[in-house]
Amino acid sequence: MSMIKIENLTFAYPTSGDYVFENLHLQVDTDWKLGVIGRNGRGKTTLFRLLQGLESYTGTIVHSVSFDYFPMNVPVPQQSTEEVLQQLCPMRETWEFICEFSQLDLSTDILARPFQTLSGGEQTKVLLAALFLGEGNFLLIDEPTNHLDAHGRSCVAAYLKRKKGFMLISHDRHFLDACVDHILALNKETIECQSGNFSSWFVNFNHQQEQELERNQQLKKEVLRLQQSMRQSANWSHQKEATKIGPVDKGFVGHKAAKLMKRSKSIEARRKKAIDEKAALLKNIEKHEPLKLVSLPYSAGPLLSLSDVSLFYDHRRLCFPISFSLSEGERLFIEGKNGSGKSSLLRCILDSSVSYTGTIKRSSHLIISYVPQTTDHLNGTLRAFIQEHQLDETQFKTILRKLGFARQQFEKKIENYSSGQKKKILIAKSLCEKAHLYIWDEPLNFIDLYARIQIEQLIQEVKPTMIVVEHDQAFKQTLATRVLTLETNASLFNTDPSC
Q1: What CA–CA distance (Å, rounded) separates 183 from 411?
Q2: What are the domain boundaries of the chain?
Q3: Distance (Å, whole) CA 375 – CA 397
Q4: Distance between CA atoms of residues 247 and 232, nearest Å
Q5: pTM
Q6: What is the pLDDT of residue 40?
Q7: Which residues contact 206 (CB under 8 A, 6 or more apart)?
């Protein structure tokens, strides 16, 4: 057992005048399985970079361990998966890769395939295998569940459960419960660490929020009372001062008024300080402000229908024939193992850019809003993004503010945003678009818990027509009206969202 000690840590990126951390004190036992949570942009990944010594800072970070970070960089993704693993784990042999693959439910066939041709979930599992085959350093694991199906998440959680200690960034509640024993929460104004899994922390957090809300109501009343008292005191002092004016020298009155004015200003200064201190306490609440979406109605029959559609990649059939139709108000969730063709099916519906057989019928004049799985294409300024996609700037920025963006972040380059903030840009764009059908490919990747709750509540209220690929089981069980399960040797269509 050893400790990671952080004292008086202060850090801000050169491109921003805002502190990510200011006078941070933290102590972590390296035997802990520590889950790190918080709003996007709060500094979770930045903390990992600071621990690795990748950023300059003031204060001290003391540790006696070395760190391994996930996801690691793949220098030549065009190489075969086995060659990539040999570069990342030069001391390991092929049989060890195969053993690791069996625990992560990966086919050994992908060892011969170019790494860049693997699905997002397959790439994630391969890189996790490389991490697990490392030298046994303290693990800094950044969002390992993105692109992983439910079975993959279960496998990874079970594997992490057996590890000695790590720090894990994740917004998946079930995943955290399965593998962590401590929670580090980067709250709005504070940073706290407590023993237990996510569920136990969340119970305590909600209790604290209730107390905070009650306290805030009291503080608001107290601030209002102090402000009214200040105004009354100021008016009274000015009235006393005015009695000095006249043809007769009122020395006594003037002297008394001066003393009262001085006393009044002193009281006013103390009250103003009290107001500032109390107003500052009103900032600790995590707000879940409601989002808005205006979908277009479509009542003239099915919006979309597929008949005996089989998908192909590099002459390889991904799944057996798919048939379904989608009517207004339905929310179809597509699930299946990594590599079963979920994202390919979405692209096929969008523009038929994927090789397929069978029939796809889209209703005439059908307007689709799409959230892609990746954010790699995002760069430049937010203003340029708004202009490129012809968005309502006020509406777009209002949505981002509700999703946790600070105003000063609007001036940053998009490439300097966190992965979660980039995904929120794509979601905000989709929410600004009036469409008949919303197709979202893993929309919750990197998205924090609070934003997930906001998005979930919005969809429950508006009930737009949607096709969604998403591995968050709670999200799916709450919102899905139908579930399509893709199998490599069968395609099953269910009507029960809990399937």
Answers
A1: 32
A2: 3-204, 211-283, 304-494
A3: 18
A4: 28
A5: 0.72
A6: 85
A7: none
